[in-house]
Amino acid sequence: EAGVVQSPRYKIIEKKQPVAFWCNPISGHNTLYWYLQNLGQGPELLIRYENEEAVDDSQLPKDRFSAERLKGVDSTLKIQPAELGDSAVYLCASSLLPPGQGGYEQYFGPGTRLTVT
Amino acid sequence: QKEVEQDPGPLSVPEGAIVSLNCTYSNSAFQYFMWYRQYSRKGPELLMYTYSSGNKEDGRFTAQVDKSSKYISLFIRDSQPSDSATYLCATSGGYQKVTFGTGTKLQVIP
């Protein structure tokens, strides 16, 4: 069974440029998460989807970040415009069930390492 | 105060040693406790998952939760160089999001 797929693995952009990250979750996993991980820190939730609905986006900086999950499968996270402080690893994860129904086993992708210069 | 506190290490041990990794948490509503392992430039992978207090064992790994002191531990017996990674504790209170610790970097020296 294929794991969570993310692309690109690495991205270097100049500040003020836009950038997009793509995630394909494990087949059948209805819950999808986007996390941000800074160096030496644990993952921090940006947004959680149940199918195509964003059910927790309280930590998503909506002035520059946006996300979508069309058809409840693949998801895209976008930053526009990027700032120096956005340099981090962006992780996508999926789970079979949502947290409230026992879905604490999250499966992570390898992440996209973003460098903003 | 962070909801989950974890010593960042690094922790360096000789091969074969017993490793103890620990976290404390502040929210008494947390009932679900996880340990993830993260190798360099990889995503975290789930190692252990426990509910409420008690112990859970899986091979060389034992997870322990003490809700009275809000303390969670991961023990690794007969540690191997392949165990060298960052270990993240994580907790949740049910419908809440999962909150991760900062991770402890472990190095097992052959």
Feature tags:
heterodimer, A: 117 residues, mainly beta, 7-stranded mixed beta sheet, 4-stranded antiparallel beta sheet, 0% helix, 47% strand, B: 110 residues, 6-stranded mixed beta sheet, 5-stranded antiparallel beta sheet, 55% strand
Question: Kindly, what is the distance between the CA atoms of the first and last residues of chain A, rounded to a whole number of angstroms?
Answer: 37 Å
The biggest sheet of chain A, with number of strands, parallel, antiparallel or mixed sense and barrel status, is: 7 strands, mixed
Helix content of chain B: under 10%
Strand content of chain A: over 45%
- How do the SSEs of chain B run, as a string of H and E? EEEEEEEEEEE
Number of strands of chain B: 11
Compute the number of strand runs of chain A. 11
Major sheet characteristics of chain B: 6 strands, mixed
What do these coordinates show?
The complex is a heterodimer of chains A (117) and B (110). Chain A is mostly beta strands and 117 residues long. Helix content of chain A is 0%, strand content 47%. Chain A contains no helices and 11 strands. In chain A, strand 5 and strand 6 form a beta hairpin. Helix content of chain B is 0%, strand content 55%. In chain B, the strands form 2 sheets. In chain B, strands 2, 4, 5, 9, 10 and 11 form a 6-stranded mixed β-sheet that branches. The mean pLDDT of chain B is 93. At the A-B interface, strand 5 and strand 10 of A face strand 4, strand 5 and strand 9 of B.
